[in-house]
Automatic annotation (TrEMBL), chain B:
InterPro entries: Gliding_Motility_GTPase, KaiC-like_dom, P-loop_NTPase, Small_GTP-bd, Small_GTPase_ARF/SAR. The keyword GTP-binding applies. GO terms for molecular function: GTP binding; GTPase activity. Pfam families: Arf (PF00025), ATPase (PF06745). Keywords: GTP-binding, Nucleotide-binding. The lineage of its organism: Archaea, Methanobacteriati, Methanobacteriota, Methanomada group, Methanobacteria. This is GTP-binding protein. Residues 3-229 form the KaiC-like domain. The keyword Repressor does not apply.
């Protein structure tokens, strides 16, 4: 991404300002704070603005993502050529979905395979478009299937891949999933930390905090 | 010696792996490496050996599905009892497991895998994945367990194949793990901003002295691990010296030249060369420089992993065309070196003047050269290989 980036979400842009290419954001909050809605709107606005997007669906599958966005009249299906999805939970149900087009299936407990697929997608988006946006919803679900240290390693590797491709990423994390020491460590991996508590959204970037109702 | 069934790897190891030796495929995050372990197991099963797969990255059903997608029949061999799973995955997903061995808790892992090794004398066991074991058990305990497995495997002439992802572990830990293995094969990404390819190289082997050759590979379904000889592109405007350059760096080369109506020979189709240098093999393709052949540039440049852009240092009016050819051959996205040719001629611009006129970023090396006088050529080759393989 050669130019600075605006998310297209008025409330978020008001507190974030413009993001530099390679900015990796963490979005935290308690359950039901609206993190997934914000993450899907972030995806939709990116696609609408013509940016390709890599969406890692960890908490729900690709079909649920389509359904969730449709409820808001955001038809991500119409951006099929710009949207790459890595679907982690669908295989758990016992089915063996075939990779098709821009949708790849992996497994929540196979972090190595996940990184292979992240690499394939960042490469093809970078080569085709020279720019990308990525959303990881959510990192907390990985913690249910993997040792916390491994999840930290995966997040670092994921951030590196997005930064290399000059992309912008938003990683969702639900508070209270990991032990406190891991939870304290997670924000250190990110450039911007956005927090939602249901009524107030705040952000910290480079040590400076901003708040919006 | 036992074959690995990975193309080229047996050659690099002097015929294969020694009976009872351990081998670790150590991969950077992002390298497609599971197929290495599974391909080795599949080959050995076809020979009639017994085997097992320890898994903590996917339940056995998923792995059977993977084998099927590679075109390898593991199901009938499971039915015959030639191969079985040590399931360290299903219990952690809350799923029942009916495998011969199940790891319900990581405290059991050492003994359960030892029993599995006892069941397959002369066979092969795949451990997928060592890194997850480290992150569950911690460094010291994992090392002690791996040493115990390797000792038992060696006694029973079982080859243990470890799949290991080199996440951001401390170097000391990585070194100690590597020391416990009889053979380590590194699987690396080749990057130019993003991953553009993958290669393997034998880092060490207890029974042979492997050459430091990086073998590029890709994994296909069906098929498994396939090696490919990379393609290096030589492009640039008309009369910049591409054909001479290909001839100069290639051990063998063919040029499709024709003396057209004028006295100036020019390449009307392409130059093809083969290069063997510092353990690295590549095919070289030189593109024609004239615009009327641009329609074939796309075909010629497909699958290229690196490019030389030849420019005539005395002809700045051709630099725009050189930039255009970088774009048309997709060389923007792959490692590339600009060869500032004809430096021996009067009026030649310096590499920095060329950089300024072509508006090239500092990340693109410009190597001064005179192909006719024979200098700068190997420097250009070393520079490109350095970009490709960090050497």
């Amino acid at each position: 991404m050669s130019e600075n980036y605006s998310t297209g979400i008025a409330g978020l842009d008001a507190i974030l300002g413009e993001l530099e290419p390679g900015s990796i954001m963490l979005l935290t909050g308690p359950p039901k704070a609206g993190k997934t809605v914000l993450a899907t709107e972030f995806t939709y606005r990116a696609l609408q603005a013509g940016n390709p997007c890599l969406f890692i669906a960890a908490e729900y599958g690709y079909r649920d993502l389509q359904r969730n966005t449709m409820a808001f009249n955001w038809f991500i299906q119409s951006f099929a050529d710009k949207l790459h999805v890595i679907d982690l939970p669908t295989g758990l149900a016992g089915g063996r979905p075939q990779d098709s087009g821009n949708v790849r299936y992996s497994a929540l407990q196979n972090t190595t395979d996940l990184m292979v697929k992240v690499g394939i997608s960042t490469r093809s988006l970078y080569l085709e478009e020279g720019t990308m946006v990525s959303v990881f919803d959510s990192a907390s679900i990985l913690l249910a299937f993997n040792p916390p240290k491994l999840v930290m390693r995966v997040l670092k590797a994921y951030n590196d891949r997005v930064r290399e491709a000059g992309g912008i990423a938003l990683v969702v994390y639900t508070e209270g999933v990991a032990e406190k020491d891991i939870e304290d460590e997670i924000p250190g991996l990110f450039d911007v930390h956005i927090h939602m508590d249901g009524s107030v959204m705040s952000a910290v970037r480079g040590g400076e905090g901003m708040e919006a109702p | 010696m036992k074959k690995t069934y990975i193309p080229k790897l047996d050659d690099l190891l002097g015929g294969g792996v020694k009976e009872g030796a351990s081998i670790m495929f150590s991969a950077s995050p992002g390298v497609d490496y599971e197929a290495f372990g599974y391909q080795m197991l599949n080959g050995r099963l076809e020979e009639g050996s017994a085997g097992f797969i320890f898994t903590n990255v996917g339940e056995p059903e998923s792995i059977i599905y993977e084998f099927r997608s590679y075109g390898w029949d593991i199901e009938s061999r499971i039915e015959n009892g030639n191969v079985f799973f040590v399931d360290g995955s299903s219990p952690f997903l809350g799923m029942p497991s009916d495998q011969r061995y199940t790891v319900n808790d990581y405290s059991e892992i050492k003994d359960v895998v030892l029993r599995a090794i006892d069941d397959i004398p002369g066979g092969v066991g795949v451990i997928n994945n060592l890194s997850v074991i480290i992150d569950y058990l911690g460094n010291g305990e994992t090392l002690e367990i791996v040493e115990a497995w390797n000792r038992r495997a060696s006694e029973l002439e079982v080859n243990l194949v470890y799949l290991f992802t080199e996440w951001d572990y401390e170097q000391e830990l990585i070194d100690r793990i590597r020391e416990t293995m009889d053979c380590v094969v590194d699987l690396r990404t080749i990057e130019e901003r993003v991953i553009i390819g993958q290669g393997f190289m034998v880092a060490n082997s207890a029974w042979s002295e492997p050459p430091s050759t990086m073998v590029l590979f890709f994994v296909v379904q069906p098929g498994g691990v396939k090696v490919y000889v990379p393609k290096i592109l030589v492009t640039g405007p008309y009369n910049s010296g591409k054909s001479s350059f290909v001839r100069a760096i290639a051990t063998k080369s063919v040029s499709v030249d024709r003396k057209a109506l004028s006295a100036f020979p020019t390449t009307i189709a392409m130059d093809i060369g083969h290069l063997e240098y510092k353990g690295f093999m590549a095919d070289i393709f030189g593109t024609p420089g004239q615009e009327r052949f641009d329609m074939i540039l796309d075909v010629l440049s497909r699958e290229a992993v690196g490019a030389f852009i030849l420019v005539d240092s005395t002809a700045p009016e051709t630099f725009a065309r050189a930039k255009e050819m970088i774009r048309k051959t997709r060389a923007e996205a792959i490692p590339k070196v600009v060869v500032a040719n004809k430096q021996d001629l009067p009026g030649a611009l310096s590499p920095e003047e060329i950089r300024e006129k072509m508006k090239l970023g500092a990340e693109v090396p410009i190597v001064p050269a005179s192909v006719t006088e024979g200098w700068g050529i190997m420097e250009a080759l070393d520079t490109l290989l350095g970009l490709l393989y960090g050497g």
